Amino acid sequence: MRSIFLIAVACLLSACNLPLDRLSAIVPTPTATSAPASQWQHIADGLDWRRLLPNGDELAQLVVVRIDPSLYRFRALYRPGQPASLAAWRALAPAASVLINANFFDSQYQALGLVVSDGQAVGAAYQNRGGTFFIRNGAPAVLANHPEIESSVEGAEQAVQGFPLLVDEGEQAYFARSRSERTRRTLIAMDRRGHILILVSPFLGLSLADLSAYLPGTDLDIETAFNLDGGGSTLLALPGADYFQPSLDDVPTVLAAYPRESN
Predict the structure, then answer these.
(1) Residue 213 belongs to a domain
(2) How confident is the model at residue 262 (pLDDT cuts 50, 70, 90)?
(3) Total structural domains in the chain?
């Protein structure tokens, strides 16, 4: 199965002149525990995962991780000017049950938008653009950004930001279209029951507009969702499912989820 994916991705990406020896970084290693489409797989109490296949398209698939915040806590980890690979981030956060890349960043590996790590805020919050995931008093929230977003996240212990906003109040929130938009994605969302959802497109993904239109029609029951850095930055570690999606580029910011009983 993996060879089929490699051939398909190679054909679709040939116009980008991506070397074949880098395709293994795009295609995550399948395992015996790989989740079938549209079926939740239990990893641990409060932690489940599944795959979705928009329009039956394997190359557009979404890996979805569902996290119960009553059983898991979150930390934003930021190393300005010191980006790290998936393996390096795992070494820095060995107890993490989930790791994903977070904010966009500039050529100097400084995060764009707001990052709050253990109560220390860095950067200026986006306003009227994208969304914010934050933890305050131990409780998570995912909000659409607005002119008062900085006051909304004041006192947050952790926060990451991205754009564009994809789902707002359960409805499609992004409509702009670009023919060249199809790429790997990293998203964060909250469903109506208060679960945090991590969504990653490991292959070619969907355009942002198509993704925004697709998500409200799924059974994920998403209230709010926004896009984090994708493309070469897309990264996911899910050790309990033996699933690892390395990024093509090192990244300076990740979001980690830990069992609440861990240090």
Answers:
(1) yes
(2) low
(3) 1
